[in-house]
Amino acid sequence: MNLMTGSQVENAVHQQTGGVENTPLKMRGRKVNVFYGPKQALFGVDLDVRQNQVTALIGPSGCGKSTFLRCLNRMNDTVDSARVEGDITLDGENIYDPKIDVVELRARVGMVFQKPNPFPKSIYENVAYGPRIHGLARRKADFDGIVEKSLQRAGLWSEVKDRLHEPGTGLSGGQQQRLCIARAIAVSPEVILMDEPCSALDPIATARIEELIDELRQNYTIVIVTHSMQQAARVSQRTAMFHLGNLVEEGPTEKMFTNPDEKRTRDYITGRYG
Amino acid sequence: MGEHTVSSFDQELDEIDRLIVQMGTLAQRMVGDSTKALLSADERLAARVISEDATLDAFQRDLDARVITLIGKRQPMAQDLRAAVGALRMAADLERIGDLAKNVAKRVNAVGRTPVSETLSNSIEAMSRVVQDAVSDVLDHYTAHNAEALQALRVDDEKIDIRYTAIFRELLTYMMEDPRVITTCTHLLFCAKNLERIGDHVTNIAENAYYVTTGLQLPAKRPKRDETMPAASVS
């Protein structure tokens, strides 16, 4: 019988459990500074987002994690006083290049917010709206297809298929959030940004969204901001810790929650912060 | 280590550590008493060790319950998570040490009513002292978060193994010289084997304590040789 040495065994086990170091980059931030008026909110953040991975951004309130998230699809452009410096690329292309069409960028990098915010329209129209304004479909049958596929991917189809023309606002909070996810994926984005998507939901609705995030990862790249350490540990493959506008540490989620390198990360995740 | 925002979390972790130390102190005493009882044919001491094993088991159940509650209630992370899981594993090893000591104590009747001769008992007594020191050292180093010393302890286990091999040979010689001591020697051999296995549990505890302290696993274990076995049967 051939016996493996200790390190061979460990390598073999590591290969099976799958290291994420080698997954290709989807987005890359370099020396990202953000100012709100005179106040600097982010200080030279370097952070990579890997394809088909869930990257969790954690840190105490006001640490800049949401600010960074909002840089990834230029949502900060909508804030008058905000100014962004540094490079952020999507598939190697600078998204702050003047030639970039912001509307098209936001179709490629979709967003789901903390509070479910369906349009005051029917469930169907909530999902069909994006594809319509982006001209992704013409015929009703095509729209029907997109609506069904998006709702299915968002795990909502079976619950709403018989009442597609009822208002989206009539759904429960958890269903509304899944409707917002369906709306985001209807325009076939490549990246989905989620800003505390479960903070307004009960544990069951939260579990369904987390399950969904794991499924969506097969087709999309996801960046999620969360205040729940356990959620970050459950759904993400990589975790980035922010504090006072700085990126403190970034690494495989497993390591971040069992043996982080930085004291600030340790203190925050173990509840010793502040 | 700084304190948690929630101070009762600190208290719960401290309480778990305190139980580990209590279990360790008890286990160490049981190791010493069981060997002493065996070598001096002291049935009362043996009975005490046997009853103390039940106490040790009760400590372990208490610790398990506290750790499970802590995990459920606090969802510990990083060093806290390592401390919680590490405590469960260390307590299991300490409980096993107690079992092995009890097993030695149970042999007191079998060895016979007269104390074992000095020549026979000297080596075992010495081995027992080394093992007791290892048990108390591992807990000292754990509570002092001394990673280096924990790593060294693992290496020290080799010395216990060497003692076991020496005792094995010594007892074999006695048995060949005088077949009337075979029964006694066989029980002493079991005693030595149990001490050797207690050393292995100390090694486990040291590895766990090292992981709790540093977050790193010690490299895979050194190749272990048991020289009491014929070479051909070692695979």
TrEMBL record, chain A:
Q: Which SMART domains match?
A: AAA (SM00382)
Indicate the segments annotated as coiled coil, or none if absent. Answer: none
Keyword terms, alphabetized:
ATP-binding, Nucleotide-binding, Phosphate transport, Transport
Protein source organism:
Mesorhizobium liriopis
For the keyword Signal, the answer is: no
Residue ranges of domain ABC transporter in the record = 27-269
Chain's gene name? pstB
Name a GO molecular-function annotation.
ATP binding
- State whether keyword Nucleotide-binding applies: yes
Where is the signal peptide, in residue numbers?
none
Family under the similarity heading: Belongs to the ABC transporter superfamily.
Gene3D superfamilies hit by this protein:
P-loop containing nucleotide triphosphate hydrolases
Q: What is this protein called?
A: Phosphate ABC transporter ATP-binding protein PstB
UniProtKB/TrEMBL annotation, chain B:
Carries keyword Manganese? no
UniProt keyword annotations, A-Z: Cytoplasm, Phosphate transport, Transport
What InterPro entries does the record tag this protein with? PhoU, PhoU-like_sf, PhoU_dom
Q: Where in the cell is it found?
A: Cytoplasm
SUPFAM superfamilies registered for this protein in UniProt: PhoU-like (SSF109755)
All copies of domain PhoU, residue ranges: 20-108, 124-208
**Position of the signal peptide:** none
- Function summary: Plays a role in the regulation of phosphate uptake.
Q: How does it assemble?
A: Homodimer.
Of which family is this protein a member?
Belongs to the PhoU family.
Q: What is this protein called?
A: Phosphate-specific transport system accessory protein PhoU
